[in-house]
Amino acid sequence: xxxxxxxxxxxxxxxxxxxxxxxxxxxxxxxxxxxxxxxxxxxxxxxxxxxxxxxxxxxxxxxxxxxxxxxxxxxxxxxxxxxxxxxxxxxxxxxxxxxxxxxxxxxxxxxxxxxxxxxxxxxxxxxxxxxxxxxxx
Length: 137
What we know:
mainly alpha
């Protein structure tokens, strides 16, 4: 899951509001050491790994893993030649969508997409189009 939350340093309330319902118990949260993730880990019954310095790294939990994900995202976003920050979550949804289906051929993708679209029941207005997460699958 990728989601941009706010424009500055994340707060405990914004983290809880946006991520608590999406975490399964026993998940692992990787953090930069900010205290706002402590409460999230407790309430979601998850492990919290803080990657503050080289002393906290091991072969699996390393800042290079996060940096490689950022590089993949930047690689996709560079094609758009600049994006508006307020639409960042839409671009992240598109990134997840593309990555999820990139190894499938069209015959595999189509039934999955049609099955998920069939369950959607809503009306789109011009106003809701600006805020609705169109590519969330």
